[in-house]
Automatic annotation (TrEMBL):
<dbReference type="InterPro" id="IPR058679">
    <property type="entry name" value="RlmG_N"/>
</dbReference>
<dbReference type="InterPro" id="IPR029063">
    <property type="entry name" value="SAM-dependent_MTases_sf"/>
</dbReference>
<dbReference type="InterPro" id="IPR007848">
    <property type="entry name" value="Small_mtfrase_dom"/>
</dbReference>
<keyword id="KW-0963">Cytoplasm</keyword>
<dbReference type="InterPro" id="IPR002052">
    <property type="entry name" value="DNA_methylase_N6_adenine_CS"/>
</dbReference>
<protein>
    <submittedName>
        <fullName>16S rRNA (Guanine1207-N2)-methyltransferase</fullName>
    </submittedName>
</protein>
<dbReference type="InterPro" id="IPR046977">
    <property type="entry name" value="RsmC/RlmG"/>
</dbReference>
<dbReference type="GO" id="GO:0005737">
    <property type="term" value="C:cytoplasm"/>
</dbReference>
<keyword id="KW-0698">rRNA processing</keyword>
<dbReference type="Pfam" id="PF26049">
    <property type="entry name" value="RLMG_N"/>
</dbReference>
<dbReference type="GO" id="GO:0003677">
    <property type="term" value="F:DNA binding"/>
</dbReference>
<keyword id="KW-0808">Transferase</keyword>
<dbReference type="GO" id="GO:0008990">
    <property type="term" value="F:rRNA (guanine-N2-)-methyltransferase activity"/>
</dbReference>
<dbReference type="InterPro" id="IPR001091">
    <property type="entry name" value="RM_Methyltransferase"/>
</dbReference>
<feature type="domain" description="RlmG N-terminal">
    <location>
        <begin position="1"/>
        <end position="180"/>
    </location>
</feature>
<dbReference type="Pfam" id="PF05175">
    <property type="entry name" value="MTS"/>
</dbReference>
<feature type="domain" description="Methyltransferase small">
    <location>
        <begin position="201"/>
        <end position="371"/>
    </location>
</feature>
Amino acid sequence: MAILETPFARLDLERYPAQGNSPLQPFNAADEYLLQRLHEQQLPAGSRVLVVNDGFGALALSLCGQYQVSSCSDSFLAQQGLANNAEANAVDVAGIGQVSRTCELQGDFAAVLIQIPKTLALLQDQLAGLQPLLKPDTLVLAGAMIKHLPRAAGDLLEQYVGPVQASLAWKKARLLQAQVAGLEAQPGPVPVTYALPEFDLQLLNHPGTYSQEKLDVGTRLLLQHLPQDLQDKRVADLGCGNGVLALACARLNPQAEFVLVDESHAAIRSAGDNWQAAFAGRAAQILVGDGLRTLPAASLDLVLCNPPFHQQQVINDFLALRMFRQAHRVLKPGGELLIVGNRHLGYHVKLRRWFARVEQLAAHPRFVVLRASKAADK
């Protein structure tokens, strides 16, 4: 837990998923800077305020006691963090309108607070959706830690909102304030499509989907080692992104059943569109969620995974190890986890915490493909 104290509220906040003895904070100086600048504006109580890319509820929970708050986030984990922190602080989360895209909102807002995301295509999509929600006097503030603030973020704000003024640095954070200029509405970014001819696939990627522009090297390596003898077994693509692993495996195994899950709403939109385009009429579970947490124990035969090595701007292997633990729980005895990972992360050692056997199937200067087998019943 970490305490966030601002002019609006005093909150005990925690990251999600919780990570014991972690020095990582559930908010940063950009959150504090955004809240302080909003407080200086003295908006009337009850004003409509939108927060975008709220990490774990620091912005929305601080403001919901004074304003009508809506929250937009592509991340299911961030939304779950908001819900958990609301419960811990006795805040009624039902009073916060939550959406995954700004274009799902209606009406207008007195203020918009944006934590600038890592992916500029996602920011562009969010700004395009914001345009009809802005009034001439809407306060539009975007913030980020300076080391994560791309120059193009200001360009996008100017393109979709109006002239931008950068603040002074404060605790290594900076704000960009955009003046609503009544610009002619501009379209958002179009989904990017690339081909995977060896599997007869066209992969569509909505803004914000991992590896949006092209297939990443690690996934390409893993694709070379997909099984072809699964028959009617149940397979999960964990952290599916655009669904490429499940789609390719489904091409090779026409009778197998598939579950695709990711915490990104954009990824799940992409995976759903791609599955429908490739296998119209073939059933699959396509879920936005916290990994395999909601699946029954011992319900899968195979899990495919190219695990993330970061959460938001923080690089670590915590989420990957959590996904391995989830995979072990949902696999049947003798079931297998097939992954690709960076060599230096040492997953071959870490997987032995849960799996009876770990073997390397392929090596690359940067990546390895590993197969981890769950102990079979005796």
